[in-house]
Amino acid sequence: MARSPEPKSSEITRERDYLDRRELLSTAAKFTATSLLTGGALWGLAGGVRSPTQSQGRSAATPLLASRSEAPFSVDEEPTSERNVTTYNNFYELGLSKEDPARLAGSLKTRPWTVVVDGLVNKPTTFGIDDLLTRFPLEERVYRFRCVEAWSMVIPWVGFPLAALLQAVEPQGSAKHVAFTTLLDPKQLPGQARAVLPWPYVEGLRLDEALHPLTLLSVGLYGKTLLGQNGAPIRLVVPWKYGFKSIKSVVRITLLEAQPPTTWALAAPSEYGFFANVNPAVDHPRWSQASERRIGELSRRDTLPFNGYGDQVASLYAGLDLSRNF
Ligand code: MTE
Fold first, then answer.
1. Model's pTM, two decimal places?
2. Residue 68 Cα to ligand 1 middle (Å)
3. Ligand 1 lined by 230 (C-beta under 6 Å)
4. Contact (CB, 8 A) for 232 and 110
């Protein structure tokens, strides 16, 4: 995310086909400088993750049965190609370049896998991933996905509403927030051996955001199970927020009263906030958020408030100053 959002016109092929190490090192240096400037910890210089592991192609995925959700839960826009969705990724635990996660995801083992749901709930439960897949009806939802780096995609996710899971564990009245945690295991996620971010990756939502019907726990895309690079076996998708809120490979969901810490706000608090709602009116300190590059298209398009989901979610933020609560 510390990378420039403005790749050159040949960017997609360039980024996929090889990694410019000088660019990577200067990114890492910038990131370290940001950490210093913002008073954060001085994390080690990122050198990329280079262990030879099996890459994850679509043959590693298995079909999933899901019913298609229509508007307002699906947009009528051309989905980004499956190849781009599965080879142009951000997953820093699997490397820093866009093509590293697909190349290195073979080390992530998704069975057995459990998700602990605990904290301020009446029925704390540890769910096996296969229980989740059968217990909650799966839907296909075609969502816009907008990264804070100013690129975007349209992704046909398969999953179920987070609200269904939360209702099953019965939140207590004092619960106001939900914290999410990614697997911590440097053997499976070798990028965690390097201190480019504080690990494990953590994210959070207000409880009303978490219960919003658009908020999805995704277990697949393009009708098949998720691949490691996309956050297998289960990840969050919050389509009106910048992509970094959509935490991957989740192992714990905890209901809390207080607002939980979140990885990018810990790393660079002046650049990334807790809310992270897509907002073309509030620029990132180092680049504009007014427009975006849809992966697979040449021209830029205007970025929409709340990523185009304003009718459904703007009321959640009535009375909140969104330029301060960014
Ligand atoms: N989750 C974890 N655990 N680690 C990460 O590095 N990157 C985030 C988000 N979730 C990230 C993560 C960012 S910056 C983006 S844009 C999206 O994942 C990218 O999701 P995708 O690769 O499936 O498109």
1. 0.86
2. 24
3. yes
4. yes
Alpha-carbon span 141 to 72, nearest angstrom:
10
Residue with the two structure tokens 């090889």:
18
pLDDT in tens, 138-170: 999 999 999 999 999 999 999 999 999 999 999
Q: Extract the tokens encoding 264.
A: 């990018």
Residues 6+ away with beta carbon under 8 Å from 10? none
Task: Give the start-to-end residue ranges of the domains of the chain.
Answer: 9-317
Helices (H), the chain: 11-17, 21-37, 82-87, 100-104, 129-135, 162-169, 207-210, 263-267, 310-313
Q: Does the Cβ of 248 fall within 6 Å of ligand 1?
A: yes
* Residue pLDDT, tens place only, 172-195: 999 999 999 999 999 999 999 999
Q: Which overall architecture, per CATH, does domain 9-317 show?
A: Alpha-Beta Complex (3.90)
C-alpha–C-alpha distance, residues 47 and 52, integer Å: 15
d(CA 260, CA 204): 6
Asked if 279 and 305 touch (Cβ cutoff 8 Å), the reply is yes
Ligand 1 near 93 CB (within 6 A): yes
The pLDDT tens digits for 8-32 are 433 333 333 322 322 332 343 333 3
Q: Which residues of 143-153 are buried (b: 16+ CB within 10 A; e: fewer)?
A: bbbbbbbbbbb
Query: Residue 146 C-alpha to ligand 1 middle, in angstroms?
Result: 11
DSSP class of residue 27 equals H
